[in-house]
Amino acid sequence: MTRVQWYVVRGTLTFPCAYGACRGLWAAPHNIYLSDAAADDLFAENFFTVKHEILHDLVGRTGHPPVFQQCGLLRTDSLG
Ligand SMILES: [Zn+2]
User: Fold this and answer.
1) What is the pLDDT of residues 10-60, one digit of tens each?
2) Burial bucket for residue 27 (CB in 10 Å: 0-12, 13-18, 19+)
3) Are 21 and 29 a contacting pair, CB within 8 Å?
4) 68 CA to centre of ligand 1 in angstroms
5) Up-side HSE of residue 12: CA atoms within 13 Å toward CB?
6) Distance 25 CA to ligand 1 centre (A)
7) CA 71 to centroid of ligand 1, rounded, Å
8) How many CB atoms lie within 10 A of CB 25?
9) DSSP, residue by residue, 18-75
10) What total of structural domains would you count in the chain?
């Protein structure tokens, strides 16, 4: 957790992303951006957005390899 640099982008509900609209984004090497909406609601869905972005950091890439599905961290809607 200490290697991750966290950012909250104030005034945002979502970010445009490859999946449509995302509440969080991961960027190499260890940056995680949370929308205002995600940051103000960290507990939502049992920390789904935070866990999802941390998994990106653990696998070190964008996109969603099978481990996201295996961990229950793949959204079926567009707010991943
Ligand atoms: Zn993702």
Assistant:
1) 998 999 887 788 999 999 999 999 999 888 887 777 799 999 999 999 999
2) middle
3) no
4) 8
5) 18
6) 7
7) 12
8) 22
9) TTEEESEEEETTTEEEEEHHHHTTTTTTTTHHHHHHHHHHHHTSSS--HHHHHTT---
10) 1
In a domain, 76, yes or no: no
Assess if residue 75 is contained within a domain: no
| C-alpha 76 – ligand 1 centre gap (Å) | 11
Domain around 9: 5-70
| Cα–ligand 1 centroid distance for 53 (angstroms) | 6
The two structure tokens encoding residue 67: 């481990």
- Taking residue 26's Cβ as centre, other Cβ atoms within 10 Å add up to 21
Tell me the CA–centroid distance for residue 62 and ligand 1, in Å. Answer: 6
Task: Provide the whole-model pTM.
Answer: 0.85
Residue 77 is assigned to a structural domain of this protein = no
